[in-house]
Amino acid sequence: MRLAIQTIAYLVGTLSLSVHNTNSFTTTTSISAAFSYKARVSSSFIPRNNNINSRIQQPTELQATKKKENDDGELRQLLGVKGGSTETDIWKIRLQLTKPVTWIPLLWGVMCGAAASGNYHWIWNPFDPNDRDVILGLTDTSKSIVAMILAGPFLTGFTQTINDWYDRDIDAINEPNRPIPSGAISKNEVIAQIWVLLLGGLGIAYGLDVWCGHEDPIVLYLSIFGSFISYIYSAPPLKLKQNGWAGNYALGCSYISLPWWCGQAVFGQLDRPVYFILPILYSIAGLGIAIVNDFKSIEGDREMGLQSLPVAFGIDGAKYICAGSVTLTQLGVALYLYSIGEATYAAVILGLLLPQIYFQATLLLPDPIGNDVKYQASAQPFFVFGILATALCVGHHTWA
After folding, report:
1. pLDDT tier at 26, thresholds 50, 70, 90
2. Which residue among 20, 177, 187, 342 is the one 20 to 30 A from 299 at the CA level?
3. Which pLDDT tens digit goes with each residue over 327-351?
4. What is the tens place of the pLDDT at every residue in 278-306?
5. pLDDT tens digits for 210-221?
6. Where is the domain boundary, 220, 236, 271?
7. Is residue 82 part of a domain?
């Protein structure tokens, strides 16, 4: 019972941390809510015939709509998502290229790796009297924040910037207002940003290895490997994204497995096969999530000859591949947890899978293009909580 209470508390605490540090997964709903923000106007009071009557001065419908569109465009621009407004401020453009909305799954993955290590210490754990070393807790919190900065702003920022650079011709079709195809940022400025993010990220990775006392710089190795995958995903001649299967799996691995391994390496060791198998299984589910992102760019991909899965298998074929990969891999994780005696955690994974299946049936399968954002906002929170629950199980399990 105490372990169940600890698990719930950890879930709530880590969700709060992910929101504090800001696919992408858990804050999609709040982002969508921000996009639907409507301006409000104050009331003014005009006396007439010695009576005080209030009269609300509302803007015209056209003005309200224009303001909403401007607010939406500015927010989308800062987050790096489709439909952002045109910006001239170079630092806002640089931020847009790193697509901050895509940092969130990496931050979550780092937290899952920390949980899977079984060695992350709270600043003051109300459930465990042996885990109340404030200094140790502050140290671990600091390490986790640095690992998130590495995974999010630096290496994900590098990945997104280099992807935009090599996708500039496709973006000229799908999103001509993006900074590079629109000419809002020069070639030299883009190349400089790529190098600063890459070298800065590798420097932070090595610093974490030194801080953690690693004999082998495992965090640096993971960062180099992830950066290499990011490069061949976007750049010719390999350009993995041209191959639907390889590209989508590379994306799933980068967003789930690598940050998990990074977080676990910072706080523990990667010395058991299960520490690799489970993140890889979830990366297969991540392949399915990556397919959802491909639906919106099917026109440009087809015109440029990119064999994304929606192009290769058609929309109907790709949507079933998407749903199947997400569902079957989580069933496999639940069966594995049950096989090692963790029936409670297996039931949690199944419980979190059921709403995902419902949203697949009601949103994804009927209209994967029209409902792509709505489906991800509805289903992915359950998916990422399942990853965290699995990581907590691994961290608390007593291995023979």
Report:
1. very low
2. 187
3. 999 999 999 999 999 999 999 999 9
4. 999 999 998 888 899 888 878 877 877 77
5. 999 999 999 999
6. 271
7. no
CB contact burial 39-60 (16+ within 10 A = b; e otherwise):
eeeeeeeeeeeeeeeeeeeeee
**Residue 84 included in any domain:** no
Domain of residue 265: give its range.
Answer: 94-271
pLDDT for 158: 98
Please tell me which of 221-235, 278-292, 301-315 the model is most confident about, judged by mean pLDDT. 221-235
Distance, in Å, from the CA atom of 300 to the CA atom of 89, rounded to the nearest integer, reads: 28
Instruction: Flag the least confident range among 13-27, 48-62, 300-314.
Output: 13-27
- Which domain-ending residue is among 245, 271, 297? 271
Phi, psi of 44 (to 5 degrees): -125, 150
The tokens describing 356, both together, are: 């995902």
pTM: 0.79
CATH number for position 299: 1.20.120
Q: Which residue has the higher pLDDT, 49 or 185?
A: 185
**Is 242 found in the same domain as 99?**
yes
Strands 43-48 and 51-56: antiparallel
d(CA 315, CA 331): 24
Task: Let me know: does 137 contact 288? Beta carbons within 8 Å.
Answer: no
Cα of first residue to Cα of last residue in the chain, in angstroms, is 23
Q: Could you tell me if 229 and 259 lie in one domain?
A: yes
Q: For 183, left (φ over 0), alpha (ψ -120 to 50), or beta?
A: left
Note the pLDDT tens digit of each residue in 89-133: 899 999 999 999 889 999 999 999 999 999 999 998 888 888 899
Same domain (yes/no): 288, 209: no
Query: Do 176 and 108 share a structural domain?
Result: yes
